[in-house]
């Protein structure tokens, strides 16, 4: 079973950027990735199976990514999706020595996945609420105030999860800091994951980061 890293954070917070870096550092982010789109021309690095499962969980709990169901409503679906979650986690763990996944929806559903994870590591992506809201408005037409409140809700959910699980290995990365100090932040990721990418992989990871 491989070491697994989970990328968390609100949509438009740089999760795709970090997942793309991980991919170039040799982390298998999934075998069925969502490709590039006009709103994300460099790729999402989201495994379709995780996205589809998260959507099913959120819908069953009475919500969507942009209208998050309450924590208790999600936890009530634990047994319903236990087998699906376990199967998907085992699949990605067996895929390679170093694996991971990224789907911002997991910021809402992580408590359902957590019992089936073996020694996971977490990367949490942060970006200013106004920047996130502006990006959501541009991509999806979501009003600024709604986007800001949605970003705060995701932040609250993540803070609550890590408060309940204080000893989990976690690194916090900030969007603008990664853009401005790319080499240093990639080095932080490498040290955190205890991996040994080649010089070519490091160069490719650094070259992937662009100002959007």
TrEMBL record:
Entry superkingdom = Bacteria
Annotated InterPro entries: P-loop_NTPase (IPR027417)
Identify the Gene3D superfamilies for this entry: P-loop containing nucleotide triphosphate hydrolases
Q: What name has this protein been given in UniProt? A: Sulfotransferase
